[in-house]
Design brief:
Length: about 140
């Protein structure tokens, strides 16, 4: 009596490499570096808002700027509008372009718009820069 027993199929090569061992030294170092980078990004965003709050009394006292409390509140609120836009746009964009590219591009854009805030001559010019700066920072 003969039985037809099929030999098991050879193991197929996986499309993905195996996941790194979480106890590996290199993996732990990389994880720490990523956490440090994310912490730095959050700190930079917080610093942006702290500087705005510290500078606001001096800006309100300067009559040449033509800034009142209502406009100052509007300018401060634009930061959160920028965060909203960044959250909506950057998630799908990161899936399409890759997270590394988006983080690098966002860092460059954040830096450029922060410099734009520093050199803006009027509050509306500063608000345009400060409103776009968090949009890029949210991707980080």
């Amino acid at each position: 009596m003969t039985t037809d027993v099929q030999a098991p199929a050879p193991a197929r090569a996986s499309a993905r490499p195996p996941a790194p061992d979480p106890t590996d030294r290199r993996t732990r170092a990389l994880t720490r570096a990523v956490v440090a980078l994310c912490t730095a990004a959050i700190t930079v965003e917080g610093f942006d808002l702290i500087v705005y709050g510290v500078a606001m009394p001096s800006m309100l006292a300067d009559s040449h700027l033509g800034l009142d409390k209502t406009l100052a509140g509007t300018l401060g609120s634009l930061v959160y509008l920028g965060m909203l836009i960044g959250a909506i746009v950057c998630g799908p964009l990161a899936d399409r372009l890759g997270r590394r590219r988006l983080v690098l591009a966002s860092g460059v854009i954040f830096t450029l718009f922060t410099v734009g805030c520093a050199v803006a001559a009027t509050p509306p010019g500063s608000s345009a820069s400060s409103g776009c700066s968090p949009a890029s920072a949210w991707a980080v």
